[in-house]
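The material for today's practical consists of a large collection of protein records. An example says more than a description, so a record of this kind follows:
***
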Amino acid sequence: MAVAVAAGAAFEAGVPRPLFETRVYPYGAISGRYYDVSAAGRRFLINSEAVETASTVSPITVVANWRAAAKP
């Protein structure tokens, strides 16, 4: 949640509102925490499920025994 504040002669807080929306992926979280804040405090690191689409998935090639194939 985020709240606008005014720090003048008296402290005033506005109406709370969501800072952002996300779908938290609770499985595999350590110590029950599903998020963390970066060391600089400028980013949130959120455990969320990866969404893959055909345009974002790139194939990979695994070469087994490549040293033997590289010998002349």
Summary: Residues 1 and 21 are 10 Å apart (CA to CA).
